[in-house]
Specification:
The protein is α/β, with parallel strands linked by helices and 515 residues long. The chain contains 19 helices and 14 strands. The protein has a six-stranded parallel sheet with strand order 2-3-4-5-6-7. It has a six-stranded mixed sheet with strand order 9-14-13-12-10-11, sandwiched between helices. Helix 5 packs parallel to helix 6. The radius of gyration is 23 Å and the shape is globular.
């Protein structure tokens, strides 16, 4: 006998409802608007979709005109990961900077202002914050996206961030459950494995997620990571033990008792797509307990949406996915959409006083400045910025500018800049690279800008050679500050957002007011 969950029209609608697809362009394509009318309930936005706040507001209004409870999601962590300011760099420092200050009220205020700006543009679901405990300093994908390496600190700032963001009417999606901080592999490229035991998981990785649930996070994003102690075969996104058994299980029974929306990380990421494919992976994820399939970072067309819709429908009809599970997932998506319709959007932003300097104030407080010898003399004339540039991870992207050059040139006109990468060091050799740098810099003071120097041997060797030749060099570390401070002045910004660069430039010039 046909039940509601297995009715053909309802089944097709539910299969569309659980998808969170992306698209190309700065206006909604016809196919997307048509699918919203057929049951699609979420849309994911990326940097390619955003040209300005005004354009973004018009785009989201276009989506809401088709469906007033549509979830409009974005990956706007602030700091190194920004979509709202992808072409200029973020007005907000990232998590590590906020953790370095360790003032939960500041974190709450920054998240509230970020949420206000998102809401004003019509965005109502943010794939943030990262609640990962960055316990592995060599982590290639989390790093400054984490509040820190101590579970209690990460937990209190995760909770504050959620409260600030959701107080502005933007649903938080806390990630990457059950914790991506102890990985040495980027899940965009391969499947990371964490060999920690369940006791370690409980006292380290899960601490911030328990705080997130207690703070009322509306959504949680799963991680494409393998934890053999939890599930020896399936990554967390596809694992019933991780999602249904741990995240959903009541707290009284040892779980987290989360009853909100579970969103997958991007299904195109090789950790899942490389082994399972996105169709099978999406079916397994919904069956395991996920409610929404994030796709569109790489595959952003109607064909992808139809492929995933049809795969889910076929899985129900063939008995590989319970229809009731798909119906439950779709109901959770619609429930969050209704919450955002009532509490989010431009109307919510109007009730919040703007705090335009919140991000810069936080970035200034996050600076850690260490003199390296005699009293440092502020830079009074043009400098030379040498940017040691690693390959950016996919989450950050390579289109967002970073560093101190632009801000330093604003304060000290005539400042020159050049960038140096691993290939430059390997092709020319470090001695020749440094010799050329010194020739270009001439008599200007050099400001060496590095990012996670402890993770890049070529960068550390080049910096050592530069400091041997020019000990008066200023060193600005814009990643995780693990290496000992070096240089005449060492500045740790705890992130590479535009405001972090401005704060560092002020410290270099002695212009604390930024004038």
């Amino acid at each position: 006998m046909t039940t509601l969950a297995h009715d053909s029209a309802t089944l097709t609608r539910d299969a569309l409802t659980v998808l969170q697809p992306g698209f190309t362009g700065t206006t909604a394509p016809d196919w997307l608007l048509r699918r919203l009318g057929e049951g699609l309930a979420s849309v994911g936005l990326f940097g390619r979709n955003i040209a300005s706040p005004e354009q973004l507001a018009a785009l989201t209004a276009q989506l809401r005109a088709e469906r007033d409870d549509v979830l409009v999601a974005i990956d706007e962590e602030g700091g190194d990961v920004t979509r709202l300011e992808v072409r200029t760099g973020s007005s907000f420092p990232g998590n590590l900077a906020l953790g370095a200050v360790d003032d939960p009220e500041l974190t709450r205020a920054v998240a509230r202002e970020l949420g206000r700006r998102l809401a004003a543009c019509g965005v109502n679901l943010n794939w943030a914050p990262s609640a990962d405990v960055n316990s592995n300093p060599g982590n290639p994908v989390i790093g400054v996206r984490s509040f820190g390496a101590e579970p209690g600190l990460v937990a209190r700032h995760t909770a504050a961030y959620i409260e600030g963001l959701q107080g502005a009417g933007v649903a938080a999606c806390t990630k990457h459950f059950p914790g991506h901080g102890d990985t040495a592999v980027d899940s965009h490229h391969a499947l990371p494995r964490i060999d920690a035991g369940l006791d370690t998981l409980a006292t380290r990785e899960l601490v911030p997620f328990r705080a997130a649930v207690a703070a009322g996070t509306k959504a949680v994003m799963s991680a494409h990571i393998l934890l053999p102690a939890l599930d020896p075969e399936l990554p967390a996104t596809l694992s019933p033990a991780a999602l249904h058994g741990l995240l959903r299980r009541p707290a009284a029974d040892g779980g987290l008792g989360f009853d909100g929306l579970i969103v997958t990380d991007g299904m195109e990421m090789r950790a899942v797509s490389g082994t399972y494919g996105i169709e099978r992976g999406s079916v397994l994820a919904i069956a395991a307990g996920a409610d929404a399939i994030c796709v569109g970072g790489g595959l952003a067309d109607e064909d992808t949406v139809l492929r995933l819709r049809d795969a889910l429908v076929a899985a129900v009809r063939e008995g590989r996915l319970p229809g009731e599970r798909l119906a439950d997932a779709a109901a959770r998506v619609r429930a969050l959409g209704e919450w955002t319709r009532r509490h989010g959007g431009p109307g919510a932003a109007k009730g919040i006083a703007p705090a335009p300097e919140a991000g810069l104030a936080a970035a200034r407080r996050a600076l850690r400045v260490t003199p390296g010898g005699p009293a440092y003399e502020a830079l009074t004339g043009p400098g030379y910025v040498a940017g040691f540039t690693p390959v950016a991870n996919i989450a950050v992207g390579d289109e967002t500018p970073w560093g101190v050059a632009a801000e330093l040139a604003r304060l000290r006109p005539g400042t020159a800049t050049a960038t140096y990468g691993r290939q430059d060091a390997e092709t020319a050799g470090i001695p020749a690279l440094i010799e050329n740098m010194l020739d270009d810099a001439a008599d200007r003071r050099i400001v060496a800008v590095v990012r996670d120097v402890h993770r890049h041997r070529w960068m550390a060797d080049a910096l050592d050679a530069l400091l041997a030749a020019r000990p008066e060099t200023v060193v600005v570390e814009m990643g995780v500050p693990q290496a000992p401070p070096a240089g005449a002045l060492h500045i740790a910004t705890h992130g590479a957002a535009r405001v972090c660069g401005r704060a560092a430039a002020e410290a270099i010039t002695g212009d604390a007011a930024g004038d």
